[in-house]
Amino acid sequence: MDKLGINLGYLFLQVVNFIVLVLILRAILYKPMLKMLQERKERIADGLNNALKAEEALARAETDKQKVLDEARSEAQRILGETRARADELAAQIKTETRADAQRVLEEARQDAGDERSRVMADMRGEIVSLSLAAASQLLGTNLDGDRQHQIVEDFFTRIPPEAKGLGGELIVVTAVPLTADEQERFKKELGTDAIAFNIDPGILGGVIIRAGGRQIDGSFAHQLASLRSSLS
Quick one: 206 exposed, middle or buried, by C-beta within 10 A (0-12, 13-18, 19+)? Predict the structure, then answer.
């Protein structure tokens, strides 16, 4: 070895120093470096896992979001449909109530008009009677006493046709002038029923028309004049 220029003692010492250096480096640097690399690897793995979980959570959140939106739209459509149905129902109800109110007002107006006409006719009854009595006196060429005048007026405006007496049932009585309460009671008694509706029609001029169902007994003065004209023609 000496011929080769190698000092065995020195070589041995170098080998020992190298081994010691390797052991020192392994103890001081390699193991901590391996540990650090392992920890870094684990952190990267955790990061990837967390990223994957976050991605899955985001996907679930998007799904949940879409589900919530779909449910909200469905609920909004349901509420809108119910609102429209309720609005239509309310509009129909208002329309029906308006028609009912209009009909009621119209009926009340008709009733008021009928009552007013009856009142006016009742007020004019005295004048009509006076004119009728004056005409009767002119036709007879003499003045009639009070009782006779009263009887003539009664017969002219309120004489019940003989064939209608005791008719009974539900009746409609039409006269040219309003009847007094006493006259109405007499009609009920002679016709044999309390179910009588009293109507006024000045167009019949005088006399009485009595209707019972589909039957009519016409004792009006207008009917008598029409019959007279027919017979003369």
Answer: buried
